[in-house]
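Take a specimen:
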Amino acid sequence: MIDTKTLVNSFTKKRKMELHMEKSLENPLPKELNLLNDFPPPTYEEWKAAAEKLLKGAPFDKVLKTTTYENIILEPMYRLEDIENLQFPHSLPGFKPFVRGNRASGYTSKPWKISQDTNYSDPIEFNRALKVDLQNGQTEINFTVSYKTEHKYGLVIDSYEDIKKAFAGIDCAEYSFRIRTFFNACEIFALFLKFAEEKEFSLAGSFVYDPISELLCLGRLVKPFESIVSEYADFVRNASKKNPNLRFIGIEGITFNHAGSSITQELAFTFSAAIEYVRAYQKLGLDVDFLAPKMNFTLSLGSNFFMEIAKIRAARMIWSQIVEEFGGNEDSQRMYIHGQTSLHNKTVYDPYVNVLRTTTEAFAGVLGGVDSLQTGCFDEAVRIPQDFSRRIARNQQLILMEEANLNKVIDPAGGSWYIEYMTNELAEKTWDIINMIEQEGGMLQAILKELPQTMISKITQEKQRNLAVKKDSILGTNLYIDLSERLIEKELSNCTEIAKGDYPVTVNPLRFHRAAESFEAIRNASEKYLKEKGKRPTVFIASIGQISALKLRIEFCEEFMRVGSFNVISGNLFNSIKEAVQKAVDSNADIIVICSQDSDYPSVVPEFINKIKEMKYNSQLILAGYPKDIIEEMKSAGIDDFIFVKANALEIFTRLWSQILKKPLEEYLIEKQGGNNE
């Protein structure tokens, strides 16, 4: 039962609220608000001053600015002022310089082609897999041809009957084709044209034959470049009459990405190759307005999301300018781009992370406006992709199209200050490299002088150094590895075999590799050791001191050594050196990491090592940290190595594994086990 006093208080409170509301209504808000006037935006200088205050003395440019492999400085934020002097952001989709796409309607009238590759070598198996793919959303037939089994990767075509087997029961007239080959292109493509004529349909899509790419991949050409171009020009001239919707001239920019190039190198070398072709075909009587629409470009899609969007947009602008310089009309200046997710950043270990990588890469390609898209399968670095992995890769595109509705918008990246600025930066730095190639006499001469090979090699070495010191990260490889994962059985080799013989044109080829391979070699050694010994080498982390002072250092040591594919024993904090030494010896560890504060090492390390020697225990001794003032003292005491934030993990792991194996790591990896090469 509520008493009278409570009711009175409640009534009084309610009445006060009503009076307050009545008073508020006497001074209503203005009908129009102008938040920009009431709350003026801070200037860049004010924001920078506030940021520097939060940095507490750390240099603004060093902490908040990043320099890319393209030598572009990334700002912490971008403003309208950054693009005020640029012309192309004011252009419209479908109009020169085509930064915003080839068509005014973008994807709304014509979505990108879902162009997943089907590369089973056996025509019967190829046919089965292709039917599954086409029935489940794929919209372009994409494959590589291997002729007379010279190459192991791709559909093997030994005769015209193999083509019939490969496409039996498939309504080829419903799809565009993307057919890629390395050699004997005229003969290979002629077989497919014969097949189309026999089946009474007109081939549409792209024939991809790039002898400059072949030269860089294999280190040789079977004929002089001029002879190859002359023969192919005759083929293109004749075949175009009955197949007007075919693009015959392929330029594979992704070749440079496979070798580890920067984005600007990929673009510049791609366009320098295209310029080489245009000049060569013009000498043979083919006009640029005939040539340019017959060209198709394959560009990689890597992990730098925003820069990859900008790359696709910059590529269209550059190509428009190149064709215009050759005298081509506006229609000829449209660039056909096949986007393909990069293999360079994919991993053998923790392969399902590759699904996340290819999703963002495909997303970037769509936002950039590719015409067709090939999403790599999560197991492509390990084997010929299976039905399950092909389905996942295909569905990634279907989700972007059908669920994310990216086919319902036109140039969604347009107007982004960051992307527009980056588009211009990439274009300008690409032109710098193109001009350099021109000064060398063109792309072919530059390759013979090994200029592209050398430039790419320098970038690759820089990337490898950054991975080794963990400035760059590959999840599951040099960061957060999972030693308990179930491995996919490997079927593919990482190397490309170069056919031996005497050839009229030979060069040092590009070295194709994945960025993760060096760390994967460490992991391969660990897996082999586990099979042979039943266990992995053990690292014992001897932590001596207070948890409050050592917690972060202990966690760093644990993660650092796991990346070396070692079994790590940690978790105990020891108050005495004697106890720490005893536990380390009891663990039978191959490597002991002494973890304490830098100030304690002069007293801790000598005593720890003396007690280890007294027990006649042989182990590699690592120190956590890099106390500069006492490095030599620690080495003299018996410390073998140091692990710290900027340490070269790859070099450390290679040394440790070689010491454990008592032989070079490379030698151990190529030894036979159970009758098979690892």
